[in-house]
Write a structure and sequence with these properties.
The protein is α/β, with parallel strands linked by helices. It has helices spanning 5-10, 19-30, 76-81, 100-106, 138-149, 163-171, 173-190, 195-215, 220-227, 233-241, 248-268; strands spanning 12-15, 38-41, 55-56, 66-69, 90-93, 112-116, 126-132, 152-156. Residues 96, 167, 171-172 line the site of (2S)-3,4-dihydro-2H-pyrrole-2-carboxylic acid.
């Protein structure tokens, strides 16, 4: 695949191959990145990555095209301390909170791109938001976009200030949706449905509604109205859910605000 030629030639280094690093690596390999071009640095690499032709905990190539950092923010300083100086390598981080400035300290003059993906990346359905530093050229941004498109859609941000809110919305968001499924299933059970049936109904309702929201031309608000018959069941349910004081709107505001604030704290802790 043309997009990956530079990585195939000069190498890609992935530091941290857990849930997010692993999801990205699976996407890149599926899109044709040469396994032998990938150096994975992770002291606790899962055994399912053995025998895939990857260079595991091996010395870094002299001049890798890309360094992808996917360790927890709290581990980032340690991980950076173990890396050699890099000259002409594009540094990409997916870590929450950790600012571009902290990578510029570690790799002066390097192009740095901060990306916030999310876990549906594991099935190629993620959304990643990205922003580069002044040294990141349009070609670097295109390269990062090609990598992240292997695991879903990509949007570009106007400023790094937006990144914590992105993290609080789409980075953490899958967890909110999983909890929505849990709470809908529990509510179905409370109305007398068997647990297994309630979970299947909740899971497929969220999956189907999500797919329709992506596929349809209408806004989610119109799709919601399409479900709602005047005086019917949905209207009765939404009266609770949409209550401006006790419903989902103020709760979701507080939820995303708390996650955004935690992203800022993680950045300030550096
Ligand atoms: N899980 C998620 O939903 C998302 C995570 N992220 C970001 O991705 C990063 C990784 O998160 P997860 O994959 O969830 O964590 P994880 O715990 O699943 O993976 C982190 C990996 O880093 C490895 N590691 C620890 N110290 C290391 C070191 N010094 N050198 C090399 N590898 C080291 C660990 O062994 C582990 O395999 C975090 O910074 C997080 O903010 C971003 C978006 C979504
Ligand atoms: O919880 C976290 O800090 C990471 C970042 C976004 C999703 N998981």
């Amino acid at each position: 695949m043309t997009d990956f030629q530079e990585m195939d030639r000069r190498g890609l280094v992935l530091v941290g191959c857990g849930r997010m690093g692993g999801a990205m690596l699976r996407g890149w390999l599926a899109r044709g990145l040469e396994p032998g071009a990938v150096t994975v640095i992770d002291p606790k690499l899962g055994s399912d990555w053995a025998d895939k032709g990857l260079r595991v905990n091996a010395p870094l190539p002299d001049d890798p095209a890309v360094l992808v950092l996917a360790v927890k923010p709290q581990m980032m300083a340690d991980a950076l301390g173990e890396l050699p100086d890099l000259r002409d390598t594009l540094v990409i981080s997916v870590a929450a909170g950790t600012t571009i400035a902290s990578f510029e300290n570690a790799f002066p003059d390097s192009p740095v791109i901060r990306v916030m993906p999310n876990t549906p990346a594991a099935i190629g359905q993620g959304i990643s938001a990205m922003i580069g530093n002044a040294a990141a050229t349009p070609a670097h941004l295109d390269l990062a976009e090609a990598l992240m498109r292997a695991v879903g859609r990509v949007v570009r941000l106007q400023s790094e200030d937006q990144m914590d809110a992105v993290t609080g919305l789409s980075g953490s968001g899958p967890a909110y949706v999983f909890h929505l499924i849990e709470t809908m299933a529990a509510a179905g059970e409370a109305q007398g449905l068997p647990a297994e049936l309630a979970l299947e109904l909740a899971r497929m309702t969220v999956a189907g509604a999500g797919a329709l929201a992506v596929d349809a031309d209408e806004d989610p608000g119109v799709l919601r109205e399409n479900v709602t018959s005047p005086g019917g069941t949905t209207a009765a349910g939404l009266k609770m859910l949409m209550d401006a004081e006790t419903g989902l709107p103020p709760l979701m505001l507080r939820t995303v605000a708390a996650a955004t604030a935690r992203g800022r704290e993680l950045g300030a802790a550096k």
